[in-house]
Amino acid sequence: MTRTRPAVAIRTGTTADTDVITALLAEAFLTGPVADWLVPDPRRRRDAYLAFFRQEVERALRGGYVHLATDQSAVALWQLRMRPPAESAERPERLPGACAPFADRFAALAAAFADHHPTVPHHYLAYLAVAPPRQNRGVGAALLRHQHAALDRAGIPAYLEASNGDNRRLYLRHGYRSAAPFHLPFDGPPLWPMWRDPRAV
Questions:
Q1: Chain segment 107-148, per-residue pLDDT in tens
Q2: Looking at the DSSP assignment, which residues form a beta bridge with residue 161?
Q3: What Å distances lie between residue 57 and 2, 32, 52, 135, 156, CA to CA?
Q4: CATH number for domain 10-196, candidates 3.10.20.90, 2.60.40.10, 2.130.10.10, 3.40.630.30
Q5: Of the candidates 103, 113, 123, 114, which has an alpha carbon nearest to the alpha carbon of residue 163?
Q6: What's a Gene Ontology MF term here (predicted)?
């Protein structure tokens, strides 16, 4: 018998959700190769991530859009990249104090993303985060399907960077093509640029 995954209810995130979304992102990305590289001191990583992701959530709410599972178990932050941004827009705003000791890594990460970002109009999946207890249960996939349906209707492609092999395989299953990875500096881990053309509807 095939097990059917439960439906995932999704709504648009608002400024009232900032604290919840920030905590969700920090928890979901707290471990892994990029986390170890970005904030090598695990004792300081959570505070740095909470400060950094609050800034990223506020940025997405201002100039992009946020999709949140109604049970607050997962979130997707998208940016509209229908024209090349000014160079300053590719770089993070002034880093919060908790991030300052690791400013060189945050700056290098932003520069690497900017150097490999396509200039063709698209929507950019900056972050897809699922709470650790809900991972591998189809919640992230539901958020992808939700946005892909809208992109397909509008004929708009999507782009992202996969941070590990498991994520890359998820995105491959959802119609993305993977380019060769690029590596972060300072002996950093690989990231895979991935592109999805819209499907005919």
A1: 999 999 999 999 999 999 999 999 998 888 889 999 999 999
A2: 193
A3: 37, 21, 9, 21, 23
A4: 3.40.630.30
A5: 113
A6: acyltransferase activity, transferring groups other than amino-acyl groups
